[in-house]
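Table S5 (text form). Sequence records supplied for joint modeling of the two-component complex.
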Amino acid sequence: MATTLAKADETVDFAARLQHVSKSFTGPGGQQLVLDDISIDVAPGEFVTLLGASGCGKSTLLNLVAGLDRPTTGSITTDGRPALMFQEHALFPWLTAGKNIELALKLRGVPKPLRRDKAEELLELVRLKGAHGKRVHELSGGMRQRVAMARALAQESNLLLMDEPFAALDAITRDVLHDELTRIWAETGLSVLFVTHNVREAVRLAQRVILLSSRPGRIAREWEVDIPQPRRIEDAPVAELSLEITEVLRGEIRRHGQH
Amino acid sequence: MASTETTPVQDAGSVEAGLDALETTATGRPSLRQTLVNKILPPVIAVAVVLAAWTLLYPVVDNPTKLPSPAAVGSAFKEAWLQGELLGYIWTSVSRGLLGFAFALLIGTPLGLLVARVKFVRAAIGPILSGLQSLPSVAWVPPAVIWLGLNNSMMYAVILLGAVPSIANGLVSGVDQVPPLFLRAGRTLGATGVKGIWHITLPAALPGYVAGLKQGWAFSWRSLMAAEIIASFPDLGVGLGQLLENARTASDMAMVFEAILLILFVGIAIDLLIFSPLERWVLRSRGLMVKS
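The corresponding structure-token record, covering 551 residues in total, follows.
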């Protein structure tokens, strides 16, 4: 019934635990079930992608895990407050790139003298050394998403939620950011829950791909991806598994046209 | 299974640096000459054209009580300056206007925030607040005189009634236009409650707020002039409105022109010195100003 944070003294063997989570909204046609009985465990350091077509409630699910909304039934437990990255960069345009990161640090309670150095460090991690004083509108789309990533990392959360963060980028930039995300994930030991509708992206990045069906969103199938990193999106094993998943996904979508 | 020999991670760094360089365009400030040609020259020419037309029109009208010559108005300025009164007129009005505006700011800002954030308050006084904007503030002069008498507090009351709705409404529309994404992003970063208002809502609403301030100043200045013209009283000290009224009673058309020009110039000067730079700075720092 609630989204809870695990207590500090509790040792947890998961970054996020979703148990029988359902969510319905009251719409014009009465109660509408969006998510139905979702149970997922994200292990510490694990990279999981949630894959699904439109209407599968992917973003709703991330909002629930982020604590921005409450599940109708079921429970969600996370190890601390998760960080969240959106499809749009969501950087604050009244602050410079560096100050955006420093605000995240400030809200987390990092004392002022440490913030500047910490922000520089995070910018270096996303390979944007020297961009501290840049205004958001002076950065390219890819650079903005990297600053957004640095800001999310500034929360020092154990869990990073990503809501189609690369969907609005061009293919070349997206490809490079996949490499960056994989590198940062490996360097930081974060757990990542990554939502996408792009099958290849899901396979390229994740250790585990969870396919959601649509209306209502249910877990349709799960795949372990044991292709060694670093991968490339055009590698044959990635393509092969993508093909298999796409077939299942198409089957799921086809069901909706039949009645 | 085709695997490439290059290490993707190392590769990513250099590709990224290339992309960053390709997609970033350098922006510089315009040169002094450009500013001179684009910004300063056009208004100077416009003023020169008006002066020329005036000079040509003067002999046609040929009636100094209706249209004084530019030279007569000039000497009215010179006289007031030599008597040491010119700055006094300006200061009397400007100090009243700015002080009244500061009060309006102190009242309008929390009021706007309240209307924007509390549903009940919005439903209760939101429509009245935007309706008040279209009520000419001259209408407040007679009741203000009756309530408060002929004194400075009457002037401030009229300024407040003129400027507070503009400032509050500016903030309300600024808050209304804050993209919900910023609020969600703020909440995930831990900016909730007062922290959310201070770190996210207020800075995000700044462009609308500044537009409201700009309009609020225009309304303050207008209200003050109306109050000074209607409620002139020797003990109050001579501001620009009184100067105009005194000139009318003395049928001194050159002085009337002098007063009108002063009112106009002061209004423009305050806008150019305070509000326009503020607005430009807010918009430019957010990349909202398109260079023409």
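Note: DSSP finds eleven helices and no strands in chain B.
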